[in-house]
Amino acid sequence: MSAREWIGKDFYRELGVSSDASQDEIKKAYRKLARENHPDANPGNTEAETKFKAVSEAYGVLSDPEKRKEYDDARRLFGSGGPGGFGFPGGGGTGAGGFDLGDIFGQAGASGGFGGLGDMLGNLFGRRGGGGTTAARGTRGADVETDVRIDFTEAVKGATLPLRLSSPATCGTCGGNGARPGTRPRTCPTCAGAGLVSRSQGAFAFSEPCPDCRGRGRIIDDPCPECAGEGISNRTRTLTVRIPPGVDDNQRIRLAGQGEPGRGGASAGDLYVRVHVNPDPVFGRSGNDLTITVPVEFSELALGTTLTVPTLDSKVSVKVPAGTSSGRVLRVRGKGIAKRDGTQGDLLVTLQVVVPAKVDGKAKAALEKYAEAVAKHDPRPEITALLRDRGA
């Protein structure tokens, strides 16, 4: 990130705090926003993921007193139309007589009080000082996504699974430096290892990637035969993935630093494991509640009964009051899916009357007597009234 881009960011606004907020207020705001926008809590939500990265970047600066002071000083200097109105309309990047941005960031002005400005901004941009040379900034590794399929019980209770991946990883032959074993990369003589070279255009000086080392700051004379000098090669590896209890179907689990390796010493990307849950023939789920449909006889609902119902690991007795209607849902507290805070959802038991396909013998005779006994009872009075009004 360039100095101009960095200064133009409002980290206080990202966290929703004022510029004089205390460290505790900054921490509290960050934790709230990070929790709300964490990728694990918002699977597939790119907007939340972008917000999570933004607040993390803001907190990384504002939580460090030294970085925060440097950030505030830089914004005061340039935000008020600093030297030449840098970064603001009308400034054009030059003062009355014009100046080179390389001078203001890399040198100390005798009268302007800019001594150490290059050091100040250099600390924040990952480099030290304006006159020294440093290694080029590396490139963070790409994120990787893979899929796993688990049983319903594993999703509810949690599981630990081996995950076999074939993906880019740090080259095992050269250890990631890209050079043949026994040799080492050498510092690029063109950019002195900085990875950047300066180019002047009128009153401005620009930095661009060094054409000889392609911005890496190093030259490999004898590339590694396995990775051809890239420091990265495809290999198969096995990871152990912990599936947390209560994971939802299609939810992503993030494994930090297990993605593609970074280049030039930068951090690796993340691995996202997308979980697919096989349906269970008996149980279902509604949030953190476990659901089950239990077939019952009409007599059990009419006269009342006590049912034995399975749970995930045992069984419970459920009392059905007399006169219970078909489709009623009975709740058994604490027999559902465990939540992350240690509490559990409930077991929801749906009662469903089963009608036999054929009735004969004593059962048929008993039903006929029952029908005679309740002949005067109308089970559908609203419909009967409507039909009567229509002359049926």
Automatic annotation (TrEMBL):
Co-factor: note: Binds 2 Zn(2+) ions per monomer.
Binding site for Zn(2+) 1: 171, 174, 224, 227
Keyword annotations from UniProtKB, A to Z: Chaperone, Cytoplasm, DNA replication, Metal-binding, Repeat, Stress response, Zinc, Zinc-finger
Subcellular location: Cytoplasm
Matches recorded under NCBIfam families: DnaJ_bact, PRK10767.1, PRK14279.1
Quaternary structure, from the entry: Homodimer.
Record family assignment: Belongs to the DnaJ family.
Annotated protein name in UniProt: Chaperone protein DnaJ
Lineage: Bacteria, Bacillati, Actinomycetota, Actinomycetes, Pseudonocardiales
UniProt gene name: dnaJ
